Amino acid sequence: MLSGTRLAVWGDPIAHSRSPLLHAAAYDALDAPWTYDRRRVDEAGFPAALSSLDASWRGLSLTMPLKSAASRAAVAHDARARSTGAVNTLLLGPRGPRGYNTDVGGIVAALGEAGVGQVSSARILGAGATATSALVALSEMGVASVEILARRPDAADELVARGTELGMRTTARSLDGPHRAVEVTVATLPGDAVLPSATVSSLADAGGTLMDVVYGTWPTPLSAAWSDRGLTAVSGLPMLLHQALRQVRVFVGGEQDQPLDDEARVLAAMRRALVGE
Question: What sequence ranges are listed for the domain Shikimate dehydrogenase substrate binding N-terminal (predicted)?
């Protein structure tokens, strides 16, 4: 039986997080008397902070740099957390925290809203934790071939191995062009990353739908280049929305793939809160 009424998002930095806005809208729509706060917690302080929580706590959302630490702390993992090695959601209970990765489902749903269904070829920019979730998401969408571009291709060795295990032809290259055509590009680079204009142009010329997971500043140079060519470019906001919905499912029922009762109304409330901020 799930218990506790307190929830929060932890990370460092955390002041920018829109998770409290999304979750407050969801629990208001569900008429659930839960609180959802934010707290700055770094990786070194995470174990002590987690162990200090009492039975009033129901769960946590985790952002950078805590997703690996949360995975280590979990006593059980859902399939996506196992596939990625990253946990962004902990459901607390007397037997210990259960770990989930809702970023994967958030990416799949966001790309679906952008009109991307089953595709065969894709490109990921970056090689961090979000890139791992993007890789697993693309696998779920049936992608057969993935190219990972990173400033240092050897930094993507683990991703290449993981993609191969998932049954995809996975390669790593430098961000420098030229670039071959793909059907979808997922950019997981930090928001302050600067790419040479020639690289941006080469990537946009390769076509395909772009998901740039940045959402604090829009448009980005990448999305602007896509839009200049009449191509679809979406920010990280739809991913944020849909991964948060899956977290709400976890906190309500313990499973991220089990829709909520009257979920359309809950999702609409969360979307209004996000765009009306």
Answer: 9-90
